[in-house]
Amino acid sequence: NAGVMQNPRHLVRRRGQEARLRCSPMKGHSHVYWYRQLPEEGLKFMVYLQKENIIDESGMPKERFSAEFPKEGPSILRIQQVVRGDSAAYFCASSPYRQGGGYTFGSGTRLTVV
Amino acid sequence: GIQVEQSPPDLILQEGANSTLRCNFSDSVNNLQWFHQNPWGQLINLFYIPSGTKQNGRLSATTVATERYSLLYISSSQTTDSGVYFCAVGDGRGETSGSRLTFGEGTQLTVNP
Hints:
A: seven-stranded mixed beta sheet, four-stranded antiparallel beta sheet, B: mainly beta, six-stranded mixed beta sheet, five-stranded antiparallel beta sheet, 11 strands
């Protein structure tokens, strides 16, 4: 079981470019969550998805950010027209369908906007 | 939304010492997890513990849901225990595990040799 796979591990983008972050959940997990961690801070919820559905996006900025979890393939977090303030670590987690399981986090993508 | 407060914010120990980390939360929860973020940034799930007590080696955790707090115990600490310990809670309803987790600000633990 490969765990939650995130790529890339590090991503450098110039201001105004697009960033695409990918997350493949653990086998058998049907829930995917994205969190953002600014330097020296805790994790902030962004979005919760199941296959082909956004369940809760209350933590997503209203503009420039979007997420999807298609029927086939990984979940994608997309940031358009990046700004310096988007520089952060973005973590993906997955959990099983039934209660009683904890989250498993991926290793994160460190986004740096220059 | 649910508020999560962790204490202490910082803790420095000598190797071999024991410690207790606390997590208070402001509302009823049915999902509580403890995580360790190591110095390389990796987040490791330590416990899924919405209520009761669990033990895993030198670590144990207790959640008293009716009083809205959880405790993480670390015994005989080692330098590899250094990092940030996060408590996270959720109030998802129903039989599925899915719900957003609200994280505390963490306890920064440093274990010196």
